[in-house]
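re: ur question from earlier - yeah i can do the single chain one, its not a big deal. heres the input i used so u can compare w yours
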Amino acid sequence: MPKLEIHAGPEALTQLQQEGFQSHLFSHFLGASGGPKWFSHYALDSYLIAKFFHKRETPLHFIGSSAGAFRASCFARKDPVDALENLARIYSQTCYAKGADAKQITQQTRDLIDELFAEKGAEEIINNTLYQAHFVVAKCQGLGASEQTGLQLAGMFSSYVKNRLGRQHLASQSQRFIFQPTHSKLQVSDPFKIPTQQVTLTQENIKDALLASGSIPLVMKGIANIAGAPKGMYRDGGLIDYHFDLNFHNQGLILYPHYDAKPKAGWFDKSLSRTPKASHYDKTVILCPSAEFIESFPFQKIPDRNDFKNLTDEERIPYWQKVMRMTQVLAEELDDLIQKQDISRIKPLVLV
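and the output i got, formated as tokens:
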């Protein structure tokens, strides 16, 4: 039984059947929110950047929110595999003091970014014209912008209610900001009319932009007044783009390593049956672990943020690290498919 599943939208599947699973067909690479859920397909990232895309000659747009933005920052490094390994090591070994508040968690995440970037990281990301990192951030409005817990909670509840009425109503609660290199040609459109602005990454704002993209409401502090962007409170990009429901204007396919084949548009959609527009995934190829493979993980599930409170550090850290080691088989299966060009293994993507 294959441990790796590959699902492709209609246009993507047709193109792969006609031309094969070739790296030059892809122009975009998506990275979802979800914190340590990424560990369930960890080895795919290293394989893709080190082998599949290693002869790349045209720009590849890495677009990520929250954990996906942190991964994007690694892809754009001079040694992306080393950066990914550092990110996985630092994050998996992160421990929070009992009762740690939003200020402490935010500071530890800022420290993680400082360690991950070291001396040259910011410069490498900003100047990489081939592998281009894009960090998706939500600028909150109204009560959601408050740092007072009660008011912020009320703001998040308001967003939840409005989102249930229709995704377009999030436009009154949050705005999407995409922080990107100055040379990026990324173009997106949102049929739900959520305001979107693109801001140039600089030495002055890159760390704050990345930190903001992962600043979970009520868990971490928001990031105020990011340099180069309008004044205001910036939070987790997953509020709007948890798994994405956007139209990416491009000439190629979209590659999407993910933890399942049932993406949700935004954070407030997690409990809803609503799915993204199928047309937004026409050209997307999702790579994900099979349900049977996930069953073989310790605790029979993928890692998630609840592990911080439900497991001791002595239980959580080995569990997360074992899952990452186990995902090497996903990279091996993908490599085998590519070497054999066994396109018959690719399933149609069905968003239900």
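The chain is about 35% helix and 20% strand. not sure if urs matches, ping me
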